[in-house]
Write a structure and sequence with these properties.
Elements lengths: L4 H4 L5 H12 L5 E5 L14 E5 L5
Antiparallel strand pairs: 1-2
């Protein structure tokens, strides 16, 4: 899963760090949903990143 350009250039690096942790834990997620102020481009030094990772389990 390649990171979109906006995640590569986020000014605080928070999204990039969040996605790096996600991809380290699960290299091939079905979907990653990022929520909160990050969605609206309102990151500040006090913002944090919230997200949900959806996995696909094969049986």
């Amino acid at each position: 899963m390649d990171l979109p350009e906006d995640l590569k250039t986020d000014r605080s690096g928070e999204l990039r760090n969040f996605m790096s942790c996600v991809l380290e834990s699960c290299p091939d997620p079905v979907m990653v949903l990022v929520t909160g102020s990050t969605v609206h481009g309102e990151m500040t030094e006090l913002s944090d990143v919230d997200g949900t990772v959806f996995f696909e389990f094969l049986s």
